[in-house]
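Re: duplicated header lines in exported structure tokens

Our pipeline writes sequence and tokens for each protein into one text file. With two proteins the header for the second block appears twice in some exports. Here is an export where it did not happen, for reference. First protein block:
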Amino acid sequence: MKRIISGCIISILVFSAFCMDTTILREKTVNNLIVENELSKEQTIVIDFDDKGFLCSLDSENLKIHVDTNKNIYDLYFQNSMESWHQQMVHEKNCWKWFNNKGLICNIYYSEEKKTVTSDSKNYTINIKYENKRININLGSGRKCIFDMSKPIPVFITDRDITSISEINNEYIFTDYFDNIVTEFSIKNTPAFMGFSNVAFLIPVLFHIDYYFYPFITGIINISGTQKYYATSYLIEGKTTYEPEHLKQKDGLPWASGNGKGIGDVISIKEFKHKNPSELVIMNGYQDKNHPDYYDKNSRVKSVKITNSKTKKSKTIIVKDSKEEQRFSLIELGTGNEYEFEIMDVYTGIKYDDLCIQYLAVE
């Protein structure tokens, strides 16, 4: 297989407000920060500030933000290959209100007064690159942040000593002391890495924001449950790994067998948030919109034996040689919270034997 470092775009500023289990009010407490290891191509984010130094716009491949500080309104536009949405933040009556696409309030965050985002510079460009489990963020002259995702505790390393994270009784304390203002956040439960799109606590490093500006801080959300993926093998090419955790998301690198065509390999999904799933969802092959030829070049799954580890019931399915999402019923296998998927047969790649599966989930 050709080694690449492209994949799911890093959207560092996805401040979602879909009423998930997030609680960040005056206490600044966040439950279940979940981020996943992903390889991504380099991305550029352009931030503009007005004459007073306030943030007025942000433009990246996935996210556009327009700020109207006079009316206390922040418009967020998000779009990628999977979805698009527009949400609006309005500050009134001592609180920030999130409005969804239908104009309905979907969350409220209290603050004593209106706050704005400021920076110590005017317009500048941020370059972000993720390679070998390290996120390198170049903010311009004299400002560089490295986020090392290979460590058990997320750690910021920065030449300005803006941030640090410490662990006390399984609670992670995130402290910022920029401009002589000390602000603390607590992240309960051990952080696991699941998708860089929700790492909003990077924002203090990037923007030195006023931490009572809740809509920016509240980008830390739990969207994935506790689903865990395992495989009897996976491919490693240099610094690039095609591990089973890649099966969680439809974009980015796929899982690839470490045994060539992968016949006999077993993928396990455990502890998913749907206790009684009814369907298996699969996207076959290596699907990269920038390299559509990877699909045919690598092997795709043809036949899979599905086993419910609790009931021991199993069945074999035939997967089409297609890039389309495919669904298969799990109802006849009974209830449970662990499934095994054994590779029985494959469609052989025209150039590489490596078996690839882009996405695999139970719903």
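Second protein block, exported in the same file:
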Amino acid sequence: MRAWAIPLLLLGTRQLLAQGGLLINEVIADDDAARVCAIELFSAGPGAVQLQGYRIAAGTRQAVIQRELLVQAGEVALLTVGTAGDLPDVELDLSTKGATLLLTDPSGTIIQDVFHYPELPVGTSWGRSPDGGLKGTYFRRVGMEGGEERVEAVGPPHPAPTISRT
């Protein structure tokens, strides 16, 4: 297969993923062990999704979501992430240096989403904007409102790279 065909195949796969199913919507990573790391999942399909058994891989590590958690269509679920002993929903290490996450169904054979997040400046997270969308942006926590954490999109710190023919 030609080298140019692989990016086209991946682009087509991302577009299919965005049309339905379960997506990684946002990543909150922190190298400070005292702070909470999390992965937000978005149900982009027409029906509810039971998260128990789904798998999330980061690098060479893979974790299985053990608890029962039903996510309705168009809604999000926030999973805490940490290492053994922290009682997280998902036992993984999320670095602020950036990573690629892979979400698979409970059988581990059907890829639901491939999500890359860049290096995260202090106090930011990376996620889809809008929920379930194809574009990513940085978010900053701005406080609490009605018991819910409020965030605002702050955009990428640098302009997107451009491709030129030379």
